[in-house]
Amino acid sequence: MLPKLLPKVGLMVCKPCVSFMFSDLQVNDFHQWDAWSPWAKLDPDAKITFEGPDSGQGTVMTWVGNDKVGEGKMTLTESQPNDLVKLKVDFVTPFEGTVTQEFALKPQGDQTAVTWSMQGHNNSFIQKAFCLVMNGKKMIGDDLEKGLAQLKTVAESGKAAAAN
After folding, report:
1. What is the pLDDT of residue 129?
2. Partners of 85 in the beta sheet?
3. What CATH number is attached to the domain comprising 28?
4. Does the residue 163 lie in any domain?
5. N- or C-end of the chain: fewer Cβ atoms within 10 A?
């Protein structure tokens, strides 16, 4: 039986406070994602466009890139300051499909625990085969872990993408 669900979760803890992680740095503002996203460097020439508000609920990012990043649209669907960010990601290529992502931020003393989860359905035979043959769940989990490690590096250095 080929896998139908695609649940993945990554967790990291870093020094900056919750408000810095949420507002000043990264997860609530797609403009900042270039500094830490595991997919941003796969195609530096990808065409990225933004719509709606600069950050928070309703902001949209679309991309068209090479075969490593494909084409898609990401919409920030829920934004609870210093607590939670939810996203809907619609992929056009290389596979059509939709996943939801969630960033949960929890204070832990003078640090912040960030959990990044992704969940979706593998509806087509090709998507199911990819997850089975290519170990797609592990690949996506590795990407989330890489992104969280890069987010931690950026956060603990105090540098937002806007400063680049």
Report:
1. 43
2. 79, 103
3. 3.30.530.20
4. no
5. N
The boundaries of the domain holding residue 146 are 8-158
CA dihedral of 23, 39, 129, 95, whole degrees rounded to 10? 80
Give the pLDDT score at 60.
Answer: 97
For the chain, which residues score pLDDT lower than 50?
A: 1-7, 125-137, 160-164
Cα separation, 28 vs 87, in Å, equals 10
Asked whether residue 1 is assigned to any structural domain, the reply reads no
Total domains, the chain: 1
**Radius of gyration from C-alpha coordinates of the chain:** 16
Mapping DSSP onto H, E and C, the string for the chain reads CCCCECCEEEEEEECCCHHHHHHHHCCCCHHHHHHCCCCHHHCCCCEEEEECCCCCCCCEEEEECCCCCCEEEEEEEEEECCCEEEEEEEEEECCCEEEEEEEEEEEECCEEEEEEEEEEECCCHHHHHHHHHCCHHHHHHHHHHHHHHHHHHHHHHCCCHHHC
Confidence at residue 105, expressed as pLDDT on a 0 to 100 scale: 86
The pTM of this model reads 0.78
- Quick: pLDDT tens for 57-80: 999 999 999 988 899 999 999 999
